[in-house]
Structures are given as structure tokens and as C-alpha cells.
């Protein structure tokens, strides 16, 4: 279904002239989840974002759908249980995006280690029971020191004991957002990117009834009227226009910055995602993930007070990650010059919430007493043998006695919990959370929204089961993913596209693949350096994914800037030229788009840090 620049123009006119039941402000994963569920509930819904969809936090994650094993290091069973169950739901509604990829967790004989081999096995067994994968091909197992070295020859072997292997999922965060957005559009949502909410509009009773907005492309200002407004702007929730915070009841945010670095697999090769203690004594853990011929690693977790719209990777971030990486892979000696791409993002953490943190810690970070620990492990053992109930495990956890607690939280100990608030002015604010929980967060908000529409405006809406609301591209049997994608690959190859490129398209677009290859009749490959697969992807994204700039396409609709640095130089100019033709840009517009793209690529490559380093060496 069309979702293009022209759709955007039509939707702006509708936003100007039609009253909405619900206006969603923020087109990241949270807003996208709310929008698709609202539209499916027959709620007349609009969504705006001041940037491209997912341009902020939702395209800058670790690109995994975590099961939350790290939370078991503080025995936060409820968090893990909720997370693994919700992960399965997300895989069901977007089966072409989250993909199972078992995680390797090496264990060292070190005092600061999160797990030892015994506690890791206990945690993994409980994790599998909670995830419902015990007894399946995804069930956890341990491997000895020798097998770890066989799998990862470059890993640090000093005091290495072995490793655990457990189920986790890789993810394409920005694709998950756009597929939710597209489904909302397909169901009748009124959606436009690059529309900024400037100020709230209130009725005579002081209730919010819309916003004054601005088109970021033209500068035009206009009003959008809505019975209800929900703020889903992530790190911006407490900065959104000039709100009366006392009446709006918005939680204070404490965003933290996380960065990731990308190198070619020839510089660092791992067979599967690997997860280990940072080795810095700070309680953090580091991911190393293979992807598309590259390896990326992260993340940091530091308080952030800069420009929310443009967080950058700084030298201290790079130094920290390189130190942690090279400690665990000492033979690689990865350095700044090896980094091909990077990204930095903000986590929308809520200040003052002291439950489990991003890296699995919490307010209680002290050691567990021996008696309490033994009682807990015995109970878990009985639970795994079906001789104890979940309630027994939870009671054992509640009886844990810790040696100390920390009153002051460092940035890695801020809750990833979510918050749903309604102010006196009826502004709804949905904040916090993490990408795995987006569907569940949206469902909670929809329950409230439906009630408010009924109670305050006598507007009826439909009850839906959002666990079965598949997103665009995901309309196929989630239990038969591999065979389905194999079929889409085959029909794509019939257009003359090589197998690897055909599989790339099938994985990216899922059940929309037939729509993508239908553009074959519109492209002219002899006039461009782009191959047919790239042209089909580009045409589809412009016409059906509201792709407005080369950066939208090369960074968020695809991962080219992040994981295809070796190809980007070849295709970037043909992409600009092709988009200029399709979108009818003037020479001035084309030059502006080209300059923006060059800036983003240069920053992703960390050229500003590499030049600074070079000057220091010369000096």
C-alpha cells in the first residue's frame, strides 16, 4: 500500500482538517506500537515525528531482542519471565525480523565474574523453563574450556573455565519500527514523518485537545485537533513543547548513552553472539555480535546531558570498549583505525526507579548470603524437576539476604521499567521500557485510551488481541519462518537476482517481498550502477516506506551505512541520483541531500576522532 512522499502530503492535509480520536507524538518503537494497536481498534489515529521514523533511540539499540538472562544474576525472575514471554510474542507478530541466534557466555575464574559455571547453569535452566524452550533444540548447554577455544580461537584463554550457550534473538530495530508504522498506515492511520509538535492546545477546561505543529520540510505551521494526545517521544518525554509539567504528570527522564562499534569480520571473527563481563569492575557486560560479514560490539552506559537529537561517539567511549574488547580478545589488537562504522543512542531511562537495571543490576547489588543462595538453588532444582512451583521459587527469592544495598544508582543501575501516566490536562505519557516490551507497553496504553475515549467522549472502540496483530511484512506462519523465506527468496531469484541478494530482500521485507519485486517493471538497470536488488529495494522503500532522504534509506530502511562500509562508496551517489529522479529534486535539494549523507557516513566512520588521533601522533 502506498506510503510515500505523496501520502505524507495527503496526510498533512487530513491532519489539518480532521479531528482525531488519538494523536500519537513520537514515531519510535513505542509510538509505532501504540499507533498500530489503536488503528486496529477502530480509533481514528494520527502519528507524527519530528524526524524520520526510528531516527532516535529505536534505531540505535544493540539490535538484539533480549531474553534477559542478565537479570538472573540478581534473581529477578519476574523480569526474565515477562521478557522471554514477550519476546516470543514479538517473534510471532514480526516473524521475519527477530531471529533465534544462541548466545555464548564464557566463564572465567575471576572474583568479579557475574556467574561461575554452577550459577550459570542454574540460571540458564531457569531461563529455559521461563522461556518454554527446555527440551527443544534451543535448550541451553555448557561447553568446556577446550570447546570454547575451538569456537573462538582468539578469545582470552587465561583462567577460562568454559561457557554456557542459551537462546537469544538478533533483531533489526529500525525495520521493526517501520513495519509497525506501515501496518498502521495500511489499517487507516494518518501518519507523517518530520512533523514537529511545537505547543499544546487546550480547551476551556484546561484539557489538551491537540497541538500546534510545524512541517520540518517546509516550515509551515498548523494545528492538529485530537480528543486525546499521547506522548511517546522516548528521551524527549519531559522536554516535549512547553507543557505544564505539574498538570501533565510527566516522569523525569535520566537518559544514558550507549555506543556500538563495527569492524570487519577479518579483524574480529566470532561464530555467534558472545556476552561477557567488561572486566572493568563496573558490573557492565559487553556484547560481541557477528552480522552481515561484520562484527559489532557494545555497549557503554553513561549519563547523557548533550543534544538529544544528535548524540555522538566520543573518544572515551571508544577507549572503554576497545579496552574491554581487547582484554577478552587479546590477539586481535583492534584499534580506532579498524572501526568501519558506529552508532550512538540514548536509552529512555526513568530517574528514581531503582528496579533491575540495563545490565542486570539493581538496588540490591550486594552478595547473597550462603544459606539463602543454597536454599534458592535447591528450590530451583526442584522447580526444574516439577517438584516445586513458581511461587516456591519467588518466595525463596524474596527471602534472599544481602550484605549491602546501594542507595545511589550509577547510570548502569537505572531501571529499564516503563511508566504510563495521565495528567490533569489529560495528556497521556508512555515512557521508559525497552524494545522487547513495546507491544505490551502499547497494549497497556490502549486499555487506558479506550476507557478514556468511552468515559469522556462516548467513543466506542474495538477490543483486539494485539498478541496476534501481525505487522507489515510479517503476515505468515511464525512457526514456518525458514520455509516461507526460502519461498520468497526463490520467487526473487526468478527475476534474475543472485541467491544471496534474493535472500537479503526476503529477510528484509518478509511477506512484502512480492510487492518489492513487482517494481521490476519500473526500473531501468542500464542507466544506473545499482544492481536490480538494490533498485527494487529503493523503489519500494520510497513508495511504500515513506523514505524521504538517502540517509533514511541507507541507514534505517537498510543497514548499509553500518554493515556495508565496503559497498557504500560505490552505491551512495547512484542512490542520490535515483532518488533525485523519483522525488523530482532540484539541483539544490540534491546537493543538500548529498552533503547530509556524506556527513552521516563520515561521522559513522568516526573520521573526526581518527583525524584528531592522527594529529596527536604527528604532533
Largest sheet: 8 strands, mixed
Number of folding domains?
A: 3
- CATH topology category name of the largest domain: D-Amino Acid Oxidase, Chain A, domain 2
Distance N to C terminus:
57 Å
**What name goes with the CATH superfamily of the largest domain?**
D-Amino Acid Oxidase, subunit A, domain 2
Indicate the mean pLDDT: 90
The strand count comes to: 20
> Counting H and I runs of at least 4 residues, what is the number of helices?
20
Strand content: 15-25%
Shape: globular
Helix content: 25-40%
Instruction: List the uncertain runs.
Output: 354-367, 401-415
Structural class computed from helices and strand pairing: alpha+beta
Architecture of the largest domain in CATH?
2-Layer Sandwich
CATH class membership of the largest domain: Alpha Beta
Taking Cα atoms only, what radius of gyration do you get, to the nearest Å?
24 Å
Enzyme class: oxidoreductase
Domain Alpha-glycerophosphate oxidase C-terminal: 466-590
EC number: 1.1.3.21
Domain FAD dependent oxidoreductase: 21-350
Amino acid at each position: 500500500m502506498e506510503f510515500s512522499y505523496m501520502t505524507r502530503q495527503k496526510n498533512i492535509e487530513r491532519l489539518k482538517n480532521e479531528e482525531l480520536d488519538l494523536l500519537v507524538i513520537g514515531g519510535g518503537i513505542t509510538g509505532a506500537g501504540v499507533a498500530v494497536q489503536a488503528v486496529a481498534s477502530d480509533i481514528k489515529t494520527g502519528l507524527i515525528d519530528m524526524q524520520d521514523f526510528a531516527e532516535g533511540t529505536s534505531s540505535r539499540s544493540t539490535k538484539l531482542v533480549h531474553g534477559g538472562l542478565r537479570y538472573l544474576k540478581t534473581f529477578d525472575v519476574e523480569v526474565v519471565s515477562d521478557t522471554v514471554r514477550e519476546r516470543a510474542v514479538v517473534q510471532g507478530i514480526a516473524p521475519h525480523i527477530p531471529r533465534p541466534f544462541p548466545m555464548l557466555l564464557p566463564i572465567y575464574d575471576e572474583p568479579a565474574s557475574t556467574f561461575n559455571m554452577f550459577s550459570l547453569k542454574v540460571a540458564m535452566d531457569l531461563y529455559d523453563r521461563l522461556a518454554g524452550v527446555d527440551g527443544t533444540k534451543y535448550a541451553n548447554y555448557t561447553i568446556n574450556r577446550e570447546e570454547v577455544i575451538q569456537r573462538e580461537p582468539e578469545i582470552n584463554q587465561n583462567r577460562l573455565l568454559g561457557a554456557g550457550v542459551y537462546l537469544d534473538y538478533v533483531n533489526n530495530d529500525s525495520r521493526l519500527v517501520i513495519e509497525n508504522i506501515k501496518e498502521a498506515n495500511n489499517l487507516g492511520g494518518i501518519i507523517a514523518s518530520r512533523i514537529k509538535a511545537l505547543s499544546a492546545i487546550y480547551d476551556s477546561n484546561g484539557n489538551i485537545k491537540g497541538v500546534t505543529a510545524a512541517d520540518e520540510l517546509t516550515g509551515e505551521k498548523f494545528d492538529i485537533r485530537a480528543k486525546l494526545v499521547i506522548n511517546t517521544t522516548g528521551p524527549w518525554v519531559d522536554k516535549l513543547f512547553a507543557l505544564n509539567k505539574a498538570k501533565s504528570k510527566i516522569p523525569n527522564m535520566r537518559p544514558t548513552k550507549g555506543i556500538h562499534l563495527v569492524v570487519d569480520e577479518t579483524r574480529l571473527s566470532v561464530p555467534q553472539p558472545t556476552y561477557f563481563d567488561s572486566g572493568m569492575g563496573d558490573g557492565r557486560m559487553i556484547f560481541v555480535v557477528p552480522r552481515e560479514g561484520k562484527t559489532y560490539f557494545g555497549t557503554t552506559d553513561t549519563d547523557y546531558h548533550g543534544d538529544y537529537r544528535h548524540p555522538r561517539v566520543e573518544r572515551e567511549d571508544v577507549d572503554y570498549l576497545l579496552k574491554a574488547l581487547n582484554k577478552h580478545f587479546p590477539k586481535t589488537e583492534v584499534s580506532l583505525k579498524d572501526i568501519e562504522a558506529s552508532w550512538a543512542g540514548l536509552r529512555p531511562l526513568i530517574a528514581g526507579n531503582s528496579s533491575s537495571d540495563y545490565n542486570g543490576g539493581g538496588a540490591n547489588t550486594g552478595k547473597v548470603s550462603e544459606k539463602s543462595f543454597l536454599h534458592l538453588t535447591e528450590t530451583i532444582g526442584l522447580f526444574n524437576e516439577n517438584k516445586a512451583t513458581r511461587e516456591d521459587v519467588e518466595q525463596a527469592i524474596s527471602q534472599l539476604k544481602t550484605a549491602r544495598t546501594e542507595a545511589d544508582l550509577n547510570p548502569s543501575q537505572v531501571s529499564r521499567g516503563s511508566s504510563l501516566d495521565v495528567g490533569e490536562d489529560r495528556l497521556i505519557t508512555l515512557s521508559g521500557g525497552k524494545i522487547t516490551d513495546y507491544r505490551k507497553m502499547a497494549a497497556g496504553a490502549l486499555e487506558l485510551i479506550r476507557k478514556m475515549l468511552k468515559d469522556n467522549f462516548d467513543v466506542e472502540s474495538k477490543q483486539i488481541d494485539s498478541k496476534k496483530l501481525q505487522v507489515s511484512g510479517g503476515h505468515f506462519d511464525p512457526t514456518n519462518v525458514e520455509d516461507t523465506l526460502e519461498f520468497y527468496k526463490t520467487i526473487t531469484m526468478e527475476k534474475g537476482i543472485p541467491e544471496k541478494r534474493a535472500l537479503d530482500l526476503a529477510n528484509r521485507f518478509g511477506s512484502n517481498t512480492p510487492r518489492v519485486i513487482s517494481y521490476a517493471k519500473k526500473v531501468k538497470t542500464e542507466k544506473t550502477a545499482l544492481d536490480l536488488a538494490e533498485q527494487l529495494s529503493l523503489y519500494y522503500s520510497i513508495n511504500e516506506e515513506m523514505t524521504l532522504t538517502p540517509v533514511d534509506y541507507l541507514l534505517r530502511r537498510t543497514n548499509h551505512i553500518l554493515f556495508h562500509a565496503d559497498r557504500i562508496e560505490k552505491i551512495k551517489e547512484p542512490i542520490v541520483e535515483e532518488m533525485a529522479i523519483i522525488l523530482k529534486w532540484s539541483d539544490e535539494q540534491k546537493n543538500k541531500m548529498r552533503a547530509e549523507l556524506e556527513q552521516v557516513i563520515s561521522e559513522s566512520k568516526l573520521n573526526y576522532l581518527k583525524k584528531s588521533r592522527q594529529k596527536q601522533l604527528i604532533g
